[in-house]
Specification:
It catalyses: sn-glycerol 3-phosphate + NAD(+) = dihydroxyacetone phosphate + NADH + H(+); sn-glycerol 3-phosphate + NADP(+) = dihydroxyacetone phosphate + NADPH + H(+). By secondary structure, the chain is of the alpha/beta class. The protein is built from 15 helices and 8 strands. Strand 2, helix 2 and strand 3 form a beta-alpha-beta unit. The mean pLDDT is about 95. Bound molecules: 1,4-dihydronicotinamide adenine dinucleotide and 1,3-dihydroxyacetonephosphate.
Length: about 325
């Protein structure tokens, strides 16, 4: 039996702990919230972020990150903007960090695998991403993900550690592509939510998904991602999932904005993370600096910062001159 550490006790960290435990591992999960640590250790539940689900008995929780030191593999599942500070407080070690968060670091504009490599140069770094609503994974429903690792041996080891019939792991060495898909789709899901909130119809949503995917592809290719990764589970797959369901926090945020509520009010109401709200400004900024055409992302960033209303953002998108579809 191997020991797996999980860094972050939100919905996704908890669901991944369940995956790791079902695959036969002993799991130690680090959570910030004492209620989460106590809930897991005394009742086998995460009452705050994944309520109502009985967790595997092989999952234990701790409030001390250093207690995860004995685990060779860590699933890192903090919100993207907090990953740096959490990893800074982690003991150095020769381990594998499997990054499962979706976002771009706002202050540096860097992808998370770059940040993790900078902070833990002695560790292997991999990315796990895909269309994965936490509650479905925790319930053992069939799910497929992309695992990106630049080293074949550590990729194979992770597949052995976590893979199972209901958690299928496809692999690649394109960490950049896997991360960009997950980060960009959250911003596009906010846009799809706005479309839903304003009652603009399903044609408009499909158009947004397809043109949003064109933006994701432009950005990804400019950053060295491979087209097939962007068209795979971690890109297009996750985009379709997140843009089609109110189970998505990003989609719901957009829907609330589309219905006329302010982004600030909607964000202050929640304890859970809608990553797209943090990714949109930095993504729009990089796209503008690098001359990458991303009008939907720019519209979401403008909506979130309050410099455009939903009606103005829509008007701007609809009045763009027609162009060849391939561009
Ligand atoms: N929930 C889901 O279905 C999925 C989530 N993800 C990604 O996983 C990452 C974590 O999301 P969830 O587990 O859903 O979180 P969540 O929304 O369920 O919970 C919020 C998390 O943020 C943490 N947090 C709040 N303030 C913090 C701080 N100052 N420092 C460190 N941590 C802090 C909380 O401890 C908690 O773990 C995100 O990047 C998300 O995009 C990826 C796939 C699926
Ligand atoms: O990333 C997710 C599904 O793959 C979860 O999406 P939300 O963060 O929008 O809920």
């Amino acid at each position: 039996m191997s020991r797996v550490g999980v860094v972050g006790g939100g919905a996704w960290g908890t669901a991944l702990a369940q995956v790791a435990a079902s695959a036969g591992n002993e799991v130690l999960l680090w959570a910030r919230e004492p209620e989460v640590v106590e809930g897991i250790n005394t009742g086998g539940t995460n009452p705050i972020f994944l309520p109502g689900r009985q967790l595997h008995p092989a999952i234990r929780a701790t409030d001390q990150l250093s207690n995860l030191d004995g685990a060779e593999h860590w699933l890192v599942v903090t919100p993207a903007q907090h990953m740096r500070s959490v990893l800074e407080s982690a003991p150095a070690g020769d381990r594998t960090l499997i990054l499962c968060s979706k976002g771009i670091e706002e202050r540096s504009g860097r992808l998370l695998h770059d940040v993790a490599r900078e902070l833990h140069p002695q560790s292997h770094v991999a990315v796990l991403s895909g269309p994965t609503f936490a509650h479905e994974v925790a319930d053992g429903l069939p799910t497929a993900v992309t695992l990106a690792a630049d080293d074949e041996v550590s990729g194979e080891r992770i597949r052995q550690l976590l893979g199972q019939p209901t958690f299928r792991i496809y692999h690649t060495d394109d960490l950049t592509g896997a991360e960009i898909g997950g980060a960009v789709k959250n911003v596009l899901a906010i846009a799809c939510g706005v479309v839903d909130g304003r009652g603009l119809g399903q044609n408009a949503r499909a158009a947004l998904i397809a043109r949003g995917f064109a933006e994701m592809t432009r950005f990804g290719l400019a950053r060295g991602a491979r087209r097939e990764t962007l068209a795979g589970l971690s890109g297009l797959g996750d985009l379709v999932l997140t843009c089609s369901s109110t189970n998505s926090r990003n989609f719901s945020l957009g829907k609330g904005i589309g219905e006329g509520r302010s982004a600030a009010e909607l964000m202050s109401d929640r304890r859970t993370v809608a990553e797209g709200a943090f990714t949109a400004p930095v993504l729009a900024r990089i796209a503008e600096q690098e001359g990458i055409d991303m009008p939907i992302v720019a519209a979401v960033a403008a909506l979130l910062e309050g410099s455009a209303t939903a009606a103005q953002a829509l008007e701007q998108l609809l009045s763009r001159p027609p162009r060849p579809e391939a561009h």
